[in-house]
Amino acid sequence: MPNRIPVNIITGFLGVGKTTAINALLKQKPESERWAVLVNEFGQIGVDQAAMADSDDVQIKELAGGCICCALGPMLRAGLATLIRTAKPDRLIIEPTGLGHPEGIIDTLQGDSFRDVLDLRAVICLLDPRLLDDPRVTGHETFQDQLNLADIVLLNKLDLASPDQVGQAQSGLAGLFPPKQLVATAEQGRFDSALLDLVRNDTLAAQFPGSHDAFDSPAPAQNLMLPEPGKPVRRTGAGADFVSCGWVFHRDDVFDYDRLEACLNGLDGAVRIKGAFRIGYVWLFYNRALDDASIDKLAWRRDSRLEIISRDARDWDAIEALLLDCLEGDSQQSPTGAD
Question: Domain named CobW C-terminal: which ranges (predicted)?
């Protein structure tokens, strides 16, 4: 069918490097093309969009507060329609939350509403070999079906995995049936964008269809009240055996770098921590998965925000107190560009 928009799903469990991989793909985008990216986050406070930059030829749309395969299903359809209408993209990339089951997304893309508009191509799953050491991950039905439904599996973060972990992952993937079109590696999330145009294998099926529980979450993040200086807005959510808590801080809240880094690195029991913070007159992105943390510079943001995902509820009041202790004592003028 002519003129359909090619679309790819970049999936994988929490912290495998999906956002980094998509940023690397965007750098390979042909200059003549317009791309759009739909990003979904489990937590109520959207953070991933801060790590991606909109441009004239790349439009980013974020859906936070649950999973687009279930709790946010209607928002997925609306978000797709909006992106198609406003961005008029030559290619669409979808990044589900790491806790998202791909089946519902695939069904939506191939359903009556979009089959004449979108051309689903290879579903690509990133895998951190270290995750195979955690039986709570390998036994998670969503994790298993992310692999089952993928056309391509790319081993990522190999610099952090041992040779034994990499070998175990390669052996396990070789035993999958039906076999994958490709099992390869991604160097720090980078892989050839030509893989995006491999054909989707429609015979791939979920082993655990409908296994994804509904999310016990309040209204999505766009309905958040505005924070006041020193008084962040906090939202929590739960689902798929995980809980999340997120904070949005006023743009005039300025964090002390050393205290903030020590605070975030010292938080125990978190599966995933992501945040965008104002440090003086610059903004930084904090990204932690497993025990690995990184900090990168960001463009100006309208606020600071943090999302924590864990298996069990934490003492969120105590964590908020620690975060407030990381604020600079004196109020500073907003960075250039603030109203």
Answer: 244-327
